[in-house]
Amino acid sequence: MSSISTEAKVGIFVLAAMVILGYMSFRVGEYGFTLRKGYPVKVVFDNVTGLERDAAVQIAGVEVGRVEDIVLKDGKAVVTLRIIPTVKLQRDAVASLKTHGILGDKYVDIRPGTEEYGYIPEGGEIYYVEKTADLDEMLRELGTITNDVMAVTALLKGVLGDEEGEMNLRAIVENTRDLTMNLNRVIERGDRNLTELAESLTETSQEIKRAFVALAEVSERVNRGEGTLGQLVENRQLYDNLAVAAASLQDIADQIRSGEGTIGKLIYEDETAENINRGLTSIERSMEGINRYVSKSEQFRTFITYRGEYLAETDNAKSYFNVRLQPREDMFYILGVVADPRGKRTTKHYYDYAGRSYYYDEYEKDTLLFDAQIGKRFKDVAVRGGIFESSGGVGFDYFAFDDSLKLTFEAFDFEEDRRTHLKAYVDYRLFSNLYLTAGWDDFISDHGNSSVFAGFSIHFEDRDLKYLLSSVPTP
Asked: Dihedral of CA 409/412/416/417: which sign?
C-alpha cells in the first residue's frame, strides 16, 4: 500500500483541528452544555446598569449559571437566570450585583440561605435582593464632597493666605509651644517637690527613731539615779531647791495674772488675744482643707476584673476585661472590652419583588466589643447605663450577704427587627478575689443565640495590686 502524501497529512491535521475547535466552542465556560439543561430562576433589580446577557452567576466565587434574559417590567429589570441542575437555591437566598474589580464586568452573586425554608422550584423567583451602590451616584457624591473641600480650602486661604493670617498662625504655634514648655516646667517642679517631700519624711522618720532611742537611754539613767533628773528623783536637797524655785514661779505667775510685764499684756490685752485667735483660726482652716483632701484621695478606688463565661449551647468561651473607677461609695464608672466568639452583629436591609422589606443578620468575626458605663448604688441596689457590648443598654445589680452574692440583669441592643438582648446571671464570692458565675445569655433570642453559661471572674483592687507589686523581689 502506498504511503500517505504530505498534502493528505496536512488535510487530516486541519480537519482534526476543526473538529476539536468546534467541540471546544460548545465547552466555552465551565458549564457550557449543562447550562442549556439547567432550570430558570427570576430575580428583580431596581437597576442592572452594566449587566449583560450571558453574564456569570456565582455562589462563593464559583460559577453556577448564566444570565439568560433581561427584560423591563413595571419600571424594574426582570433578570432570568439559568442555574445548573446540580445546584439548588434556598427560598431565602439573597441576590446582588457585583463587579470583577473596579472596572470589570458585572455578574450576579447569590448568597445561599437555609435549608429549613425549602428550595426555589423551576421558574421560581429570588425574593431577597441586596441593594448595591451605583457608581454614577457615588461619583456625583464625590463631586459634591470635592466642591465642599474646595470651599473650605478657599475659606482657609482667605483667612490665612495674607500676611496678617500668617502672623496669626505663627502666633498660635508660638503660644502653643510656650504653653507646652510651661506645663513641662510645672510638672518637673512638682516632681522635684514630691521628691524633696519624700526625702524630708524619710529624714523625719529617722530623727523620730533616734529620739525614741535617746528617751529610752534617759529613762534608764533616771532609774539608776544618774544625771540631773536622776538626782532630782534621788537627792532630797535638790528637791527642796526645786520647791523654792516653784514658789518663785508662782510669784511670777501672780504678776502675769495682774497684767504686769510683757507676758501679762500678751495674755490679758484684748487686741493681742484677737490677733492670736485670728492666726489660730487660719491654721485650723488650713488643716481642715488638708484633711478633706486626704479623705477624698482615700475614698477613690480602682478595680480591675477579668471574667470568663463558657456558653453551653455553642461550646464557645466569652471573655470580659474591665476597669471600674469609683470616686465615691455610691458612684462608679466601668470601661472594658469583650471578646465574643460570634463577633459583632450587624443587620442588613433587603427588599423583595413585592416591595416587602426583610432583615438579615451578619456577624463580623474576631471583633472586640466595648463597654462604657456609669452607675450609681442605692444601698443594696446598683443601676447602670451606657454602652453594653458596643450597644446602648441598662443594667441592675442586687447585692446580698455583705456583697458576697450579686444578682444581675442586663438589657441592651434595642433593635426593631429583633428581640432585645437580655442577660441574667449570679456571682458568688468563693474567695477574696475569686468569684463563681452562672446565668442565661440572650434568653429571649429569636435567632438561636440563647445559651446558659457558667464561669468565673477575678477581681483586684488598687491596694491588692500595690501589695502584689510590693511583694515582687527586686534585684
From this structure: negative
In a domain, 126, yes or no: yes
Within this chain, do residues 141 and 126 fall inside the same structural domain, yes or no?
A: no
**Residues in contact with 412: Cβ distance below 8 Å, sequence separation at least 6, in sequence order:** 388, 389, 391, 392, 393, 394, 420, 421
Q: What is the DSSP pairing of strand 381-388 with strand 368-378?
A: antiparallel
Reading the block at residue 207, the C-alpha cell is 530623727
Asked whether residue 328 is domain-assigned, the answer is yes
CA of residue 348 relative to chain centroid, distance? 24
Sign of CA dihedral 16, 21, 22, 28: positive
What's the pTM? 0.39
pLDDT tens-place values along the chain, 475 residues long: 456 778 787 888 888 888 888 766 555 444 444 445 789 999 999 988 889 999 999 999 899 999 999 999 999 999 999 999 999 999 999 999 988 876 778 999 999 999 888 999 999 999 999 877 666 677 777 878 888 888 877 777 766 667 777 787 788 888 888 888 888 887 887 777 778 877 877 887 787 778 778 777 767 776 776 766 666 556 666 667 767 767 777 777 776 667 666 666 656 666 666 666 676 676 667 666 655 654 555 567 888 999 999 888 877 888 999 999 998 889 999 999 998 877 666 666 666 666 666 555 666 665 688 899 999 999 999 999 999 988 899 999 999 998 899 999 999 988 776 788 899 999 999 988 899 999 999 888 877 778 899 999 998 887 776 666 666 565 4
Place of cell 426583610: 358
Q: Assess if residue 230 is contained within a domain.
A: no
DSSP string, 119-182: BPPTT-EE-EE-----HHHHHHHHHHHHHHHHHHHHHHHHHHSSHHHHHHHHHHHHHHHHHHHH
Residues 109 and 177 in one domain: no
**Domain match, 200 and 75 both:** no
- Let me know whether 429 and 323 are in one domain: yes
Inter-residue contact 29 to 52 (CB < 8 Å): no
CA distance 36 to 29: 12
Last-in-domain residue among 104, 132, 160 = 132
Angle at alpha carbon of residue 136, lines to 131 and 140, rounded to 5°: 115
User: Total domain count for the chain?
Assistant: 3
* Cβ-contact 232, 238 below 8 angstroms: yes
DSSP 3-state helix, strand, coil percentages of the chain (rounded to 5)?
40, 35, 25
Q: Which domain holds residue 381?
A: 301-471
Structural contact between residues 396 and 386, judged by C-beta atoms closer than 8 angstroms: no
Residue 350 placed within a domain: yes
